[in-house]
Amino acid sequence: MKKAKEQIPEDLVLPQHIAIILDGNGRWARSKGMPRSYGHIVGCDNLEKMCNVIGDMGVPYLTVYAFSTENWKRSQDEVKVLMDLFRRYLKKLVKTAHRRQMRIRIIGDTAGLDPDIQESIRYLEEVSGVYDKMLFQIALNYGGRDEIERAVTRLADDARKGLLPDGRVTGNMIESYLDTAGVPDPDLLIRTSGEQRLSNFLLWQLAYTEFYFTPVPWPAFGKKELLDAIAAFNGRDRRYGGV
Ligand code: IPE
Ligand code: IPE
Ligand code: MG
User: Fold this and answer.
1) Ligand nearest to the CA of 201
2) Which of 88, 134, 189, 223 is the most exposed place for a label (fewest CB within 10 A)?
3) Is the pTM of this model over 0.90?
4) CA–CA gap between residue 97 and residue 91 (Å, rounded)
């Protein structure tokens, strides 16, 4: 039997798109007297688990922030640990994608990743591209400003070639050049581990998203914490600038 605290109340409105800033792996590990790398390993296992939980609830879109364009500033050792974890995780995700009939898309400047990782991404996106039960987006070497710079560069190229109707730039056009093109904006953004900032995540897409911050570090964030976040989301009055 499910624990009472983990049952989903029937009248709960589910966000259609949840975005998560997976933060606090390092501090969680250090608090247990372990190296930061241990936090990343447990954090990666938790991502696999929570992706299942969120998919089972029926949320069709999940986007997670796994490595930012700024995270290269970390020690070489830590970057290597993270890249090796992504290497393994991207391979494992092929099975998960088939099992869950889930499409996977990597957002961010993938050209800046090692060639073998780029190849794993290409393969994963190709084999999972036939599924539409859920879309799981993972931000790797992602920065919101970098995404906008890349989008605007391509848009300017198209403008020079005379491909823009009326020569006018609209919000919908900018959206169509972003890494997340075609995906509805997140309804709920969760950031774990206490920090209350975006750290360059989805700057364009979060314009009307509800934010939820929790002190719980990512490796300890489970179904109960997710339900708390969704319950808080249900208490919000979304107005989109109206009354
Ligand atoms: C999140 O945990 C994982 C990545 C940013 C890659 P951190 O590594 O940021 O952990 P803290 O925030 O230092 O505890
Ligand atoms: C944001 O976390 C990036 C990811 C979770 C991948 P950071 O830990 O890198 O952000 P800051 O440095 O606290 O802003
Ligand atoms: Mg952090």
Assistant:
1) 2
2) 88
3) yes
4) 10
